[in-house]
Design brief:
- The chain is elongated, with a radius of gyration of 19 Å.
- It folds into 2 domains: 95 residues, Udp-n-acetylmuramoylalanyl-d-glutamate--2,6- Diaminopimelate Ligase, Chain: A, domain 1 (3-Layer(aba) Sandwich); 110 residues, Udp-n-acetylmuramoylalanyl-d-glutamate--2,6- Diaminopimelate Ligase, Chain: A, domain 1 (3-Layer(aba) Sandwich), CATH 3.40.1390.30.
- By secondary structure, it is of the alpha/beta class.
- Strand 4, helix 2 and strand 5 form a beta-alpha-beta unit.
- It contains 8 helices and 13 strands.
Length: 244
């Protein structure tokens, strides 16, 4: 067994959480039992995820999307119904948001780059600009994408027949598109907004929306393997799929 505070200190230091001005507290968000043996791993904390965690008798939940907000909040309605079983069963909720996107070894974006066999050039926001040594045909690249994200319904705005230089920002990264003009030919992220179709076309950038959920399973899975090794924990990934 491992102590929740030892796990938190280890991950806080590893992920360098103090470097990020995040939308939430990173680390322990709800404190439960101190000793942990089994950890439920997932992308987002919600009632469905919690129900599955209870079925496997997890001691702790570790997610990418925990409880957002830093100020005082009211625990009522859906949030009360979501949190009550957690407290009743004395479970710890631990979440890591932006630090788990940005980490250069265990983060969502670096894991995507590795799976696509891309060479990382430089960080951009919480993601990376990467490249291939030589251009890849877009159709070949698209097959790779569908394989690693395990979905065929990628939303793609194709402007070029090749892929050479790629930016990756998992989750809600549509905000970064305009900053990439002239820097990359392809952008992989997890969301899209109405204006993106025309802007990507006018900028000549292949825009790939692979889904917010689908682009953010990689970080928690890599952390799970690390915790199994460092703390001898049993970590189980619970896949509450979200097509968005």
């Amino acid at each position: 067994m491992a102590n929740i505070f030892d796990i938190e200190n280890y991950l806080n230091n590893l992920l360098e959480i103090d470097k990020f001005n995040d939308f939430c507290f990173n680390g322990i968000q709800i404190e439960g039992k101190y000793e942990v043996n089994k950890v439920a791993i997932g992308v987002s904390f919600n009632k469905e995820f919690l129900d599955e965690a209870l079925k496997i008798n997890a001691d702790m939940l570790l997610v990418h999307h925990g409880i957002f907000g830093k100020g005082f909040f009211k625990i009522r309605g859906y949030l009360k119904n979501r949190i009550s079983p957690l407290i009743k069963n004395n479970l710890t909720l631990m979440g890591y948001h932006l630090p788990l996107d940005a980490h250069p070894e265990y983060g969502n974006n670096v894991q995507i780059a590795k799976k696509l066999d891309l060479k990382i050039l430089e960080p951009i926001d919480v993601g990376f600009i990467c490249e291939y040594d030589s251009a890849v045909e877009f159709d070949v690249f698209e097959k790779k994408l569908k394989n690693i994200f395990e979905r065929d319904d990628l939303l793609i705005y194709k402007t070029k027949n090749y892929v050479k230089k790629v930016a990756i920002i998992s989750g809600g990264g549509s905000y970064a598109l305009e900053s990439l003009e002239g820097k990359v030919d392809t952008y992989i992220t997890g969301e899209v907004k109405e204006h993106i179709r025309n802007i990507s076309k006018e900028m000549g950038i292949n825009y790939i929306n692979a889904g917010h959920y689908s682009t953010e399973t990689f970080g928690v899975k890599s952390i799970a393997k690390l915790l199994e090794k460092e703390f001898n924990l049993e970590c189980i990934f619970i896949d509450i799929y979200n097509e968005i």
